[in-house]
Fold:
Amino acid sequence: MMTMKLFGMRVFHEDMWELLFKFGLNAIVLFVLIRLIYYPIHRKKDYLFTYFLFNILIFFLCVLLNNVKLSTGFAFGLFAIFSILRYRTEQISIKDMTYLLAVIAVAVMNALFGKKVSLVELLFTDGTILLVTYVLEHVWLTRHEAMRQSIYERIDLVGRAAEAPGRTCATASV
Structure:
């Protein structure tokens, strides 16, 4: 078969089918983890975007950089760099950060599995992550936390209400 080239690069390579398979598997695991396990409990739409995009970007970054024969240590370094982002961005809960790390780990694992790891091992790993997450969220760890978010449109009125004569201001934490 004649190999077509454009600017010295191959237009199509047989590895494209492997990439599509890996991406499809990654997308299924990501969908189950975030849309079916995380979202029904937490209902944070802002994080859906973050989790899906983080996973997809890291997946493709790892796949493409793995093709230039970088070591697995690079993947862990990338994992560490993205983990450090937690200290540079707005505060998110520990559970949300755990989901972010799970999304990153799933992307790295699904992108870098190859000839030394069987498909059954990868499916077992992905399945175990999903099963343990589901069991922890829905069965074993019942929700012991409650959170109420208050959004004040006019923050200047909050101070006046507390200072008004005859009014008491009480706060409660759950």
